[in-house]
Amino acid sequence: MLANPRLAWVHLTGKLYGNQSHPFNGQLHVPGTLFSRQAFAGLSNKTWGSLTFGRQYAPAYDTLGDIFDPLTVGNYWQNSWMYNGIGPYLEVNNSVKYKGSFEGLDINALYGFGNQPGALGLGATYAVELTYTYGPAMLNAGFQQVSVPTSATGSSVGTSVGSSINGAKSNFLHISGAFQVTHEIRLLAGWLRGQDQTGLTDIYMQQSGAPTLKGSGSPNRIDDTWYIGANWHAMPALLFTFAYYYGQTRNAELLDGTLGKGVNQSATVLAEYSFTKRTEVYGITDFARGTGAFSADYPGGVNGEGVPTNTIGRTNQVGVAVGLRTMF
């Protein structure tokens, strides 16, 4: 018999993820970060939930990436995540995270300590996700705010890149829904808004090889993204995913360094056939098109010698891929 039965409901929990390194040179995926995804420990209980401490995924990653994003963060760059501006802030250092479920309501809240002397909120991250499930329907709402210092090293920010303005805010708000029509068909839809005062979103939204921006970044960029999608299990081993994303931005940096508007659209059809729980073959086709400020996010042109130039490249993109993957 336990000496103190009141403590019997608590058990230790923890995980280590990441330890990513470059396959050719052995360098860490994130410089100076051994576990570049998650490394945390804490306590959990079936009734009251879990409380964990360490480097952890932001609640938005848990809900959107695992449940409400039709593509679950796995596609070509422009819609690999519905709003790439928040990408660097989805892994939070020095964080305390609570997760609990109460009669259909799931709570996922996080606070990341800023670790900046003399300024409690500087470098800190605040985030909460609420998800309510009623029968086949799920409704989710979430908010995240990051106060980015000029030197982000040591703060909750999951990257060493700092803001040009000390303590500038990056905010993220979204409402998402899902409905299980039948056992085989699931519908998804949502709206996301990002507001960035750091000037970094203009860079984070760019693909590799995009033209170099001439300005210092927008001091108040606002992005709105709407999406719809569906998952269809045509057979137990065959899954089709359909997704469409429509994004608008304003006060974003244009190629000439001024600020303006833009529209980005993308559509994807994905087929996955599972041989086992871990191994599958997949085929995907993707179309994306950016105009206005989004033109700066696509790979730029090249001159006769193949050297990149600061001009608009192919802002209408079609991608097709077939592959085999094993998940660990």
From TrEMBL:
Full protein name: Porin domain-containing protein
Q: What is its main location?
A: membrane
The UniProt record lists the keyword Signal: yes
Native source organism of the sequence: Paraburkholderia hiiakae
Q: Where is the Porin domain?
A: 32-288
The answer on whether this UniProt entry bears the keyword Signal reads yes
Name its cellular compartments: Cell outer membrane
Assembly notes:
Homotrimer.
Membrane-protein topology: Multi-pass membrane protein
Q: Which UniProt keywords apply?
A: Cell outer membrane, Ion transport, Membrane, Porin, Signal, Transmembrane, Transmembrane beta strand, Transport
